[in-house]
Amino acid sequence: MKAMVLHAIGRPLVLEDVPEPVVGPNDVKIRVKAIGVGLTVVHMIANPGQVTAYPRIPGHEVAGEIVALGSEVSGFTIGQRVTNHFYLTCGQCRYCRAGRETLCTAFKGYVGMACDGGYAEYMVLPARNFVPIPDGVSDIDAAVAADAIATPFHACTKEAQVQPGDNVLVFGAGGGVGIHVVQVAKASGARVIAVEIGETKLAGAQAAGADDLIDGSRGDIAKQVAALTGGRGVDSVIDVVGAKETLEASVTALAPGGRLVIVGVRPPAVFGDSSKFTLDATVVVRKGIEVRGSRYVTATEIAQTLELLRQKKVRAIVERTFPLDQAEAVHQLIRDNRLVGRVALVVD
Ligand SMILES: [Zn+2]
Question: Which position among 7, 40, 298, 331 bears the catalytic label?
Fold first, then answer.
């Protein structure tokens, strides 16, 4: 089969003919139709320690059609359309059993890093990782939903606990994840204040439903938030950027009792800076604020996200699609931060 293969850390992917993956007793094999592409793959190629062995096929937000089932697999059928959860979890530990599977203590790594992923014609994963795609949701939309929309779903519902009437500030509101945070927060009934840099991304956030826009390159953001909220601040901040400047501005922008939800981080190997920031305990106590880390989603939350798409409460914003062999060009667009919304690769 055709696949885009990574041979060493930091190297360009190479289009190759490789053997089709073998189906174990508890696995499901799919013919890949679409793969969402975002910062996670770019991080993984640049950061030592995430890919466990080479050669490796990346790609972790994938949609396709089931072509083979392991001998022990039940609950799926040949021809069924599915997308996938991208953590290899045990299903047995206290966190898996408590519905917090992204904290799995027997975590085996990530799809596309600890095992081959979806930049290929076929992909095999444990059956537990697959989630059915409902009728009415396209392959491209489902692939993007598995990470770029499901992650905002978890951040808004579980971590920020957005309520109707809340004021929610979104840092990085025009990017692949942020633009979907705007939509999920709106679908939760919030008024959304979007922070981005540059006209194109601000326009993207507005088109996604943001009520108010702040250009992050122009002046004190917390001051602008205060002006937009009658001096009170926001009930929650969802920070997809995770830079020192955005995190510190977030804390200042929070209303008393507010929640800062951190979704994005900035690995030094990719960005040359870090996500360390200063947090004054006096402020945390005086304002009674919470700082929460939002780590991906459960498989159930992927199903809930797909249902939001089916109901058309949220739409996948996919700026462009590319053929599989253009993966490297797509990665460069992401590194250059030149995309509004998500991009996807399609496999013929
Ligand atoms: Zn576990």
Answer: 40
Can 89 be counted among the known catalytic residues? Answer: no
Closest to 88 in 3D by CA, of 119, 63, 116, 62: 116
43 is catalytic: yes
Maximum alpha-carbon separation in the chain: 62
Catalytic residue among 7, 43, 85, 305: 43
CATH number assigned to the domain with residue range 2-132+317-346, chosen from the 4 options 3.30.40.10, 3.90.180.10, 2.30.130.30, 3.40.47.10: 3.90.180.10
User: The tokens of 214 are what?
Assistant: 């702040």
pLDDT digits (tens, 9 = 90+) for 62-83: 999 999 999 999 999 999 999 9
pTM of this structure: 0.93
Among candidate residues 318, 306, 307, the one with its CA nearest the CA of residue 342:
318
- What is the tens place of the pLDDT at every residue in 198-221? 999 999 999 999 999 999 999 899
**Domain map (residue ranges) of the chain:** 2-132+317-346, 150-293
CA of 87 to the centre of ligand 1 (A): 10
227 Cα to the center of ligand 1, angstroms: 45
Which CATH number does the domain 150-293 belong to among 1.10.8.60, 3.90.180.10, 3.90.1150.10, 3.90.226.10? 3.90.180.10
CA of 192 to the centre of ligand 1 (A): 35
Q: Give pLDDT tens digits for 147-199.
A: 999 999 999 999 999 999 999 999 999 988 999 999 999 999 999 999 999 99
Tell me the CA–centroid distance for residue 26 and ligand 1, in Å. Answer: 16
Ligand 1 centre and the CA of 301: distance in Å?
A: 17
Strand ranges inside the chain, DSSP E: 2-5, 14-17, 27-37, 61-69, 81-84, 122-126, 130-132, 167-171, 191-196, 212-215, 234-239, 254-262, 290-293, 318-323, 342-346
Q: Same CATH fold, 150-293 and 2-132+317-346?
A: yes
Cα–ligand 1 centroid distance for 292 (angstroms) = 21
